[in-house]
Write a structure and sequence with these properties.
This protein has helices spanning 18-34, 41-60, 78-100, 105-137, 142-163, 166-187, 212-229, 237-241, 244-256, 261-277, 282-300, 304-318, 329-341, 366-399, 403-427, 446-463, 466-473, 479-484, 506-512, and strands spanning 193-196, 199-205, 208-210. The chain is mostly helical. The longest helix has 34 residues, at 366-399. 35% of the residues are buried.
Length: 526
């Protein structure tokens, strides 16, 4: 170790003093220790002091205003937004498909759509009828109370239909069609039938009024499905059309005599689609449709008011003069009403057309009021609900193991969809005015009760899907089913058909085969 360099001499310092020399030697030893490269103690102390210094700096300048990364998010490109949106859509679609695959999904959809359409119908009838009702009766709630009462009775009919066994429906179907035809004949008898609005279509039974043309729709569905359910697919035409078609022709003819051509057309469509679902060939089905259309055109020109509507409708498409103050008055006002509504509508209750500009605004033309008050959005939602109901109904029919319920569900769905298409079609000007009501939305007594009864039958068919039966047998019923104490559906058992033996007579085979039904007619056990 070398001695430190002696500094320049200063006053009062004795460099030869032993004490001074010892102190200088100690300072040199300390410098050698600090400068030693193998020392780790200094490195640790240095790192600790540097860390403390940085920590003090971070604490002092850690506010957001001094931080470069405060509130900063990296800019996302358009591709990332597209990928995130597509992923969200895929997730939503997957969840929706999983929900639709649940055993009771069809049942819940039918019940939910029925509830929404019924409540919407009551509200829209109140809005559309309040002005004319107040003018005629001094109160704005007369027709609303009537509609609410019929809707309550319809809910009862809906619940009754849910509790009915399929075997009971098949047993009473023949009696139902006989009674319906009898009512159609009675309504034409003077003194029994009541004429309203130029048509003799109602029968008064005490405090209630019955419209046989609405009752016969339900009877034809139940009886026609009962007849066709036992026919094999591809059966001869004679087995399919007899005796259903002659009875349907009789029913349509009696309804046309009221006169009520629009309902007669609905009957023809109902029976034709039922035959198609039962296995009628497409060629014969198309021939029947063409024959029905020809008959409808001929009947349309037999009455002055019907021919005027048809000519006005054709004139609108050909560009000829239209009678906007006569036969074309209602369609013109309906289109004005839809145009006034715009995209979002004028608001519930704000319609101008209901102030005596649009006749039957609460009934045949309720869809125009929906479009005016709720806009194109409300009209699109209404169309969407009927489209969803059609899809659900056909899915219920496709999933049925029982051919009877398959025909009932498919025919009910076709009937509701057809009436909705025709009503909305003539409101927007795509079809001539026929007077067919919009199911559950138009004002009506018999109509809303019987439509809700049909919806109850459709919901009951949904509970008879094989997956639903399996789920309900394990006690997995919905809360609605438990509240209503709905009976558990029974699985469908195909009727036993013995293989014919040509060596044995039919009577002997029936007598000796204990599994053979007592009658030749097939039966269904549910």
């Amino acid at each position: 170790m070398s001695r430190p360099t002696r500094p320049a001499a200063g006053p009062g310092i004795d460099y030869n003093n032993p004490a001074f020399l010892a102190a200088a030697a100690g300072e040199a030893d300390e410098r050698d220790t600090v400068d030693a490269p193998e020392s780790s103690e200094f490195d640790a102390q240095n790192d600790e002091s540097d860390g403390d210094a940085h920590a003090d700096f971070d604490d002092e300048y850690s506010d957001d205003e001094y931080s470069d990364d405060a509130g900063y998010e990296p800019r996302r490109g358009a591709g990332e937004f597209v990928r995130d949106g597509a992923s969200s859509v895929r997730t939503a679609v997957s969840n929706l498909l999983l929900a639709l695959d649940r055993p009771l999904a069809s049942f819940h959809l039918v019940v939910g759509l029925t509830f929404v359409l019924t409540v919407m119908g009551v509200i829209m009838v109140l809005s559309a009828s309040s002005v004319e009702d107040y003018t005629a009766n001094g109160t704005a709630y007369g027709l609303f109370v009537s509609q609410l009462t019929y809707a309550a009775l319809g809910v009862v009919a809906f619940l009754v239909a849910l509790h009915l066994r399929v075997t009971l429906l098949r047993r009473v179907s023949l009696a139902a069609i006989v009674v319906s035809v009898g009512l159609l004949i009675a309504v034409l008898v003077p003194g029994i039938g009541h004429a309203v609005g130029g048509g003799q279509r109602w029968i008064g039974l005490g405090p209630i009024t019955v419209q046989p043309s609405e009752v016969v729709k339900v009877a034809l569905i139940l009886w026609g499905a009962h007849l066709l359910a036992d026919r094999a697919v591809g059966a001869p035409m004679k087995q399919l059309v007899l005796p259903l078609v002659p009875v349907a022709v009789l029913v349509a003819g009696l309804i046309a005599l009221e006169p009520n051509l629009s309902t007669a057309i609905i009957i023809a469509i109902l029976v034709g689609t039922m035959l198609y679902y039962a296995g009628l060939s497409v060629r014969i089905f198309v021939a029947l449709i063409m024959a029905a259309l020809g008959a409808a055109v001929i009947l349309a020109f037999t009455e002055g008011y019907r021919s005027a509507r048809v000519r006005s409708f054709v004139g609108g498409w050909t560009g000829t003069a239209r009678d906007t103050l006569g036969a074309d008055y209602q369609p013109t006002q309906a289109k004005y009403s839809l145009a006034d509504g715009g995209f979002f509508g004028v608001g519930l209750g704000g319609s101008k057309a209901k102030w005596s500009y649009l006749p039957n605004a609460h009934n045949d033309f309720i869809f125009a009021i929906i479009g005016e008050e709720l806009g194109y959005v409300g009209a699109a939602l209404t169309i969407g609900m009927f489209a969803l109901l059609t899809w659900v109904g056909l899915r219920i029919a496709r999933r049925q193991a029982d051919p009877y319920l398959r025909l009932v569900a498919a025919t009910i769905t076709t009937l509701i969809a057809t009436q909705a298409i025709i009503n909305m079609g003539y409101v927007v000007g795509l079809l001539p005015v026929t007077g067919i009501q919009l199911p559950l939305l138009s004002a009506g007594g018999n109509s809303i009760i019987l439509v809700l009864f049909l919806f109850g039958l459709l919901a009951s068919a949904a509970r008879h899907e094989p997956e639903a039966i399996a789920a309900l047998s394990t006690g997995r019923d919905s809360r609605f089913g438990r509240w209503m104490r709905l009976p558990k559906p029974r699985p469908y058992v195909a009727p036993y058909r013995a293989t014919p033996d040509p060596r044995r007579a039919p009577d002997a085979r029936r007598a000796t085969d204990p599994r053979r039904p007592k009658s030749d007619r097939s039966h269904v056990v549910l």
